[in-house]
Amino acid sequence: xxQGSNDPANEVAPPGVNIxxxxxxxxxxxxxGGKDNFAVDRAVxxxxxxxxxxxxxxxxxxxxxxxxxxxxxxxxxxxxxxLDIGTGIPTRPNLHEVAQQIRPxxxxxxxxxxxxxxxxxxxxxxxxxEGRSEYIxxxxxxxxSIINDRALLDTLDLKKPVGLTLIAILMLLADQDDPWSKVAxxxxxxxSGSCLAITHPTADFNPAEVEAAVAAAxxxxxxxxxxxxxxxxxxxxDWEMLEPGVVPVSSWHPDDPNVDPKAAYxxxxxxxxx
Length: 274
Hints:
The chain is an alpha/beta fold. The chain is 36% helix and 15% strand.
């Protein structure tokens, strides 16, 4: 297992990992209570938590959304293959584990660009014997490299519906990167009946706290963009929004109907390709 250390001088990492540059996957790992992060990640994570005291809660709500979406798409939409871009460091239960509890033959391809995620993907993303899980190292900024990857094509049948999940990842692309066109390219590659699930941070609920968190991240050299409900809606293109539409992440088919819908500053939604 790759672990950070309380003493930065003693920190070690796999080849290709720069422990002096923060990475979103490792910051999320820190918020979720993991140990696969480094001093630079913890510093940025703490600064963002100073801005938004509920940050750990928000990270947890994103994970819960992944679990609810996986169940919903398998049970209601009949989808049994998934493409999860921006996977992050595995946190059980992983998407394929949730899906394979219902459909043992479900297949999942995970995508991330952090070498640490690759180390853990190989060790922890063990599929049910009837299904399959694969990991590819790629970047959302190059959708073609994802769609045309041999491991993806060997795992998923792109003639059948796919559940595409983009959980807390689009925030890492600046407007000048045109993330809407990247998502459109992915949508175009998927067949009718496919579904797209997105969560995205927003300043709509608490502008002051989110502005301070964004400043902490950008001050550390990261790209972090909070977007409005309208901007998030654009990612779904002309696909049919599933009920209840784009809503606060905690209120998308919540397990607890009494949860405060605006305590987690994220929009979330799922749409189906006609």
